[in-house]
Amino acid sequence: MVRAVKPPILDALDLEREIEKEFRKLDQHDSLPTEFAPPSVRAPDLGMPDYVEHSDGATEIGKLSAEAVVREYEAAAKDIEALGEELTERAKQCEAMMRDALVVTDELKETAKRYRAEAKRVFDQIESCSLLTAEVRKICEDMKDRLAAPTKVQDKTDA
């Protein structure tokens, strides 16, 4: 009778050794657990801010709780300061844009002034041409009348 051979079952100790062996193969920098957590989830710095100190007689739990709370407040305060710095930077950018806008506005005013001067020049030229044309037409009418007048005088002398 042929019996089916079962694969050997690893006991807990063998499994633990295999896992340990795999971890030793990994480079130290490849898998630090804190590298995967976002900055807000990572543990805060262990140092306490300078503006607080423990009271005499505080219990260990009270000290740890107070430290945890003050660290969270300090982290929030640093975020608020960073927001202020960012706001200051944006304000500087706005000021620069405002200066640039004023320069462009001055240039636009100068361009509009030149357009008005050109409009006046063209206006005066058109009116001048119109006056000249009217004068030429008047002279032509006078000449036509003069040319037509001697023929009438000549008709009277013939009669």
Question: What would you say about this model in short?
Answer:
With 159 residues, the chain is mainly alpha-helical.
Structural notes for this entry:
There is one protein chain. The protein has 159 residues and is mostly helical. Helices cover 74% and strands 0% of the residues. The mean pLDDT is 83.
Order of helices and strands: HHH
Give a short account of the largest sheet: none
Integer average pLDDT: 83
Number of helices, counting only DSSP H or I runs of 4 residues or more: 3
Low-confidence stretches: none
Beta strands, count:
0
Structural class: mainly alpha
Our measurement of the CA-to-CA distance between the termini, rounded to an integer number of angstroms, reads 164 Å
Helix content: over 70%
Overall geometry? elongated
Approximate strand percentage = under 5%
Radius of gyration: 50 Å
Assembly state here? single chain
